[in-house]
Amino acid sequence: MRKLYTSKVAYIDTRKLPLVYIKVTKEEPNIEDVAEYKKILFESFSHINQRCVVVDDASSLKWMDAVTRIQLGKVLKQFEEQYSYLIYKYHYVTPNLAIQFILEGINLVAKPKIKQAMHTKLQDAEEESSLDVRALNRVHQ
User: Fold this and answer.
1) pTM of the entire predicted model
2) pLDDT by residue (tens digit) across 41-78?
3) How many other C-beta atoms are found inside a 10 Å radius of the C-beta of residue 21?
4) Distances (CA, A) of 28 to 69, 82, 95
5) Rounded distance, CA 80 to CA 134, Å?
6) Of the candidates 67, 44, 58, which has an alpha carbon nearest to the alpha carbon of residue 92?
7) Which of 22, 84, 20 minimizes the C-alpha distance to 53?
8) How many CB atoms lie within 10 A of CB 12?
9) Distances in Å between the alpha carbon of 32 and those of 57, 65, 119?
10) 1: helix, strand or coil
11) Largest Cα–Cα distance in the chain?
């Protein structure tokens, strides 16, 4: 099992399970980038066999057109249908107000049932996610 999954769009780090870090590296992703993101997202989670907390750092994201947002929403909906049983909570890092609105639009398509939290700073997401990891560990003891 690989623990670090990389592409030109993002990387996914599972080395600190039950904490999973996703870092979006592309500033203006397009449809092809969403397909690549889907590939590494599904590949990385196919190797996870325990509940986890996700920190998704989208702070480098600048813009995403409407077609790409809809496609990403569909991908996230498929992802949730397949892997929601693994995810305790999903933390987004979106310091940019425009990206927060874009994410809300994506959620209109994805209609997530997974608990989510939005953060403007990575440090806040890391602090809250560490509390979630402790809560998750208590449940499994």
Assistant:
1) 0.90
2) 999 999 999 999 999 999 999 999 999 999 999 999 99
3) 21
4) 11, 27, 16
5) 23
6) 58
7) 20
8) 22
9) 20, 13, 27
10) coil
11) 45
